[in-house]
Structures are given as C-alpha cells and as structure tokens.
Amino acid sequence: MKTDKNKKILELAGLTKVFGxxxxxxxxxxxxxxxxxxxxxxxxxxxxxxxxNLTSGVLMPTEGKVLFNGEDITHLKPDxxxxxxxxxxxxxxxxxxxxxVMENVLLGCHLQADIxxxxxxxxxxxxxxxxxxxxxxxxxxxxxxxxxxxxxETAKNLAHGxxxxxxxxxxxxxxxxxxxxxEPVSGxxxxxxxxxxELIFRVREQGISVLVVEHDMRVVMGLCDRIAVLNFGRKxxxxxxxxxxxxxxxxxxxxxxxx
Length: 259
Ligand SMILES: Nc1ncnc2c1ncn2[C@@H]1O[C@H](COP(=O)(O)OP(=O)(O)O)[C@@H](O)[C@H]1O
Ligand SMILES: [Mg+2]
Hints:
Blueprint: E1 8-19, E2 22-33, E3 37-41, H1 48-55, E4 63-68, E5 71-72, H2 78-83, E6 86-88, H3 101-113, H4 117-121, H5 125-144, H6 160-173, E7 178-182, H7 190-205, E8 209-213, H8 217-223, E9 226-231, E10 234-239, H9 241-245, H10 248-255
Helix pairs in contact: 3-5, 3-6, 5-6, 6-7
Bound molecules: adenosine-5'-diphosphate and magnesium ion.
Adenosine-5'-diphosphate is lined by residues 19, 22, 24, 42, 44-50.
C-alpha cells in the first residue's frame, strides 16, 4: 500500500478529559503520521488508556477534538469509528474464550463483511460465496499472525502470548488503517515479546499506522519511530527513541523510576 509519510492519520487537538475533579488528560496535542509507529508512554495513571478511550469513542472528551484522516470523529460512536478504520485492542484480552482461533477471527471478519443475521440462518448461494471469501480472509489473517498451527485451538487454551497475538488478529479482521495497541506485550516472556514486535512491524509494512501504549522500554524503543510521553495527563516530551531516552524531564518523571 502506498503511504504519504507526511499525511496525518490521527490528530488529537487540545484533548481534555475530566473525571469528577480529576483531570485525567489535559490539553493533549498529538499526531500520528501515516505509516508510522508512534509510542505513548508514561507512569501508571498518566492517562494513556484514557487517551485510547477518547480516541476510539469509548469516552467523550470534556474538551478538544479527534481528527481521523482529516475528519472530525470526536462525537462518533465506537462502531462508526472502527468502521472508518480506527481499530484498537484493549489492555486485557477481549477474545471469546470458548471459541477457536478461527471462530474468533471469523467473527471479526463477519462483523466487517456485513453478512446479515438472516442470511446466516438461511444461506443463499450469493451469501455462501461471500462466506467463502470471509473464510479465506480469516485464514489469511491467521497465517499473517503466525497462528496457522493453532487455528483449531480453543482461545482459552492458548498460551498467553498467542492469546495476545489473537487479539491483534481480531483487530486486523476489522481492516484498520490505524491500529491502537494498549500494552501489547504485558505479561509476556522475551520470546513472546519478540514475536509480537515482529507482527507489529509486519502490520506497518501493510501500510497500517500504529499507536502503541507500552511499559516495556526495550520494546518501545525498538519498535517506535516517535514517542510521546504523558505525565499527569500532560505531554511532557515527544521525539525519537534516543531523544526520549536522553530527555531530562522524561528520566525524572518516568525512565529513572523502577516500576
Ligand atoms: N472511567 C474513569 N472514571 C474515573 N476515573 C478514571 C476513569 N478512567 C481513568 N480514570 C483515572 O484517570 C487517570 C488516568 O488513568 P488511565 O488513563 O487508566 O492511566 P494509564 O493508562 O496511563 O495508566 C487515573 O487517575 C485513573 O484513576
Ligand atoms: Mg492503562
């Protein structure tokens, strides 16, 4: 896919969220350029997940705007936002634990393919063809995520690392243009982390932009083109991984502290 690197896929402008008296996100300006992997880091409680919730329509901002591909999506509902290509994963797994890998991904594809409930109950020739295409697409995604050998495995029986890969596969079924990942390698061992990083790089190679929240600094620094740092809801720094690693404010607020 051809990408214009200077185009912004996502633009947050003056984004603010107040919970009761608590200002969780304050006047945040943030851009994700088309085709880049952007990181969002900061201490626990800094507001990172709230930024994801505001961007994906789960929460409405108190102030500010969310622009996706130049379009104001601030007041759209999560399903409309996802349809436009802004797709997220959640901090915890959101799989159907009793379904197989294939069924989980198929479900994601079906939601996207808009096959009516009645068509599923009374399959017509046309919708059967549509279903074959969806099956094929689900297999492509499972192969892409490196999960071919596990396609018949029940989600709950997968190792943690594979459950998280499946979470990304389900998100890919929704055809993202921007994929937002909340702590994709949390709880993983070193090998699982490397596998997830490789998948995220391959996602980007498909022309999909990525915004990732992650605490693991080796992963963040190895993965991201640029990083923004949040502290108490405010952006305190932004730059390349090496700029962020050498930023005094960041070291003081976050990197210097063992979590
Ligand atoms: N739905 C909510 N209602 C009230 N307070 C919330 C809610 N969500 C988050 N917060 C608060 O907002 C702040 C930022 O939280 P969060 O965005 O989860 O931080 P992070 O993901 O960076 O750890 C925290 O103080 C948290 O307690
Ligand atoms: Mg969080």
